[in-house]
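Researcher: Sequence recovery benchmark, item below. Answer with residues only.
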């Protein structure tokens, strides 16, 4: 299983967060840098993967409300993809 722990400090802007996620999660070049694309790419993960996502991304000074939606995208994708495990830390 592949284990990935995300760093909240890399998620202080939408653009920066999506660039970080694309690199860290090794998404394809066609990644669209938005929540729909995040969900789509996460549901396409084929190898068993565990991702630890910091709750801090939903706080002020990070992504705020957008971070809440991002956390939901991770959780929803994990429900749809049995190869993906998401833990909110």
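Model:
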């Amino acid at each position: 299983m592949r284990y990935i722990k995300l760093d909240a400090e890399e998620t202080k802007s939408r653009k920066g967060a999506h660039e970080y996620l694309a690199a860290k999660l090794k998404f394809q070049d066609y990644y669209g840098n938005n929540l729909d694309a995040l969900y789509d790419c996460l549901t396409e993960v084929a190898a068993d993967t565990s991702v630890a996502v910091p709750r801090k991304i939903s706080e002020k000074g990070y992504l705020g409300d957008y971070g809440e939606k991002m956390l939901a995208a991770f959780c929803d994708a994990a429900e749809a993809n049995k190869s993906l495990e998401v833990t909110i830390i």
